[in-house]
Amino acid sequence: MKPESPSNEGRFAYEGLDRVIHERARLSIVTSLATNPKGLTFNDLKRLCTLTDGNLSRHLSVLEKGKLVEIVKGHDRNRPQTICRITSLGRKRYLQYLSTLEQVIQDASKETKDELAGSLMSGLRPSRA
């Protein structure tokens, strides 16, 4: 394997892997909200992401502080209801995050294909009689 050239410095740093999103529960929350642009109730989000009340609240707080989600508290038939929505900034950061993940996959796939080709080629060396 040859070392990377100076022009490729930081090539695999993946700066677009947003630390606010790059956590399993928060990625689940943001993905759920991105696929439901009108928003989801707290309970629906909790069910979709299989999180406890406290865990979901904590992660929503981080996402809200980062301006990725908005939380609207209201009432439905005299019962308290919390609606969570992705913000336009949240959608933009999420799409940038996905783009970076796609690059990670492409890089890993290329490396895997190169390794596979190398191992296939080594198996095709002429035999000596």
Task: Describe this entry's structure for a reader.
This protein is an alpha+beta fold and 129 residues long. It has one domain: Winged helix-like DNA-binding domain superfamily/Winged helix DNA-binding domain (Arc Repressor Mutant, subunit A), CATH 1.10.10.10. A three-stranded antiparallel sheet has the order 1-3-2.
Number of strands: 3
Element-level helix/strand string: HEHHEEH
Distance between the termini: 31 Å
CATH architecture identity: Orthogonal Bundle
For this structure, what is the CATH homologous superfamily? Winged helix-like DNA-binding domain superfamily/Winged helix DNA-binding domain
Rg, please?
Answer: 22 Å
Number of helices: 4
Secondary structure category: alpha+beta
Shape: elongated
Say what the CATH topology is. Answer: Arc Repressor Mutant, subunit A
Read across the widest sheet, the strand sequence of neighbours is: 1-3-2
Average pLDDT level: 87
CATH hierarchy class name: Mainly Alpha
| Percentage of residues assigned to helices | 40-55%
Task: Give a short account of the largest sheet.
Answer: 3 strands, antiparallel
Low-confidence stretches: none
How much of the residues is beta strand, in percent? Answer: 5-15%
Number of domains: 1
Explain briefly what this protein structure is.
This protein has 129 residues and is an alpha+beta fold. It has helices at 24-34, 42-49, 53-65, 88-122; strands at residues 40-41, 69-76, 79-86.
